[in-house]
Amino acid sequence: MRRTRQWIGMPVLELETGERMGVVTDVYFDAEHHTAKLLVVERTGILAGNAVIPLADIRSVGEDAVTIETAALSEEWQAQPGVRCLLSGDDSWVGKELFTENGTVLGTVADVYIGEESENIVGYEVSDGLLADLVTGRKWLPFAHTVQVGEQIIVKSDAKLSELQVDA
Predict the structure, then answer these.
(1) How far apart are CA 156 and CA 168, in angstroms?
(2) pLDDT the model gives residue 81
(3) Of 138, 156, 144, 36, which Cα lies nearest the Cα of 98?
(4) Running DSSP on this structure, what letter comes out for residue 78?
(5) What is the CATH number that goes with domain 2-85?
(6) What is the pLDDT of residues 134-164, one digit of tens each?
(7) Largest Cα–Cα distance of the chain, in whole Å?
(8) Fewest Cβ atoms nearer than 10 Å: which of 13, 70, 142, 161?
(9) Class of domain 97-163
(10) Domain map of the chain by residue range?
(11) Could you give the 3-state DSSP secondary structure of residue 69?
């Protein structure tokens, strides 16, 4: 699993020229297919402003930087219907409350995980508040338990939070 929130703040490096193109500021998801689609990049230099990179054009997301073969940044892009952001906007994933079908609050989304080999959403990192996070740690909920994503996220009534597996 890959944590998408870790990408925020990473520099984007163009391998062809060795130049730093900008910094990742958000991730856009296809709300219908539940896949990560685009990285939002705050460009630096003469072309300063926001642009997007389709995930398909990314060579690698490493520990410290995102690499692309050539400057595949598109011009300024406005959010489209059916697109949900990780962090920004009224319809972002982070901060959404998770409810069971029975009306029990499980917590709020702190991060969205996608697969190692695909852009499919595989789960959520769930926060139960700062104090609980410090005492017991954050939890994990597989995306397969999701029933509906709207203003809140509704999950199956039998959904259980699991211990978060921290990568070593």
Answers:
(1) 30
(2) 64
(3) 156
(4) -
(5) 2.30.30.240
(6) 887 788 888 888 888 887 788 887 877 775 5
(7) 54
(8) 70
(9) mainly beta
(10) 2-85, 97-163
(11) coil
The answer to pTM > 0.90 is no
Length of the chain, please? 168
**50 vs 24: CA distance, rounded Å:** 9
Q: Comparing 2-85 with 97-163, is the CATH topology the same?
A: yes
Residue located via tokens 């996220």: 153
Look up residue 16 and give its two tokens: 């062809």
Q: Taking CA 76 as the corner, what is the angle to CA 74 and CA 79, rounded to the nearest 5 degrees? A: 105
Q: Phi/psi at 17 (nearest 5 deg)?
A: -115, -15
Taking only the tens place, the pLDDT of each residue in 49-91 is 788 888 888 899 989 999 998 766 555 556 566 678 888 877 7
Q: Residue 14 carries which side chain, given as an amino acid letter? A: E
Tokens of 120: 């499919």
Mean pLDDT of 99-120: 88
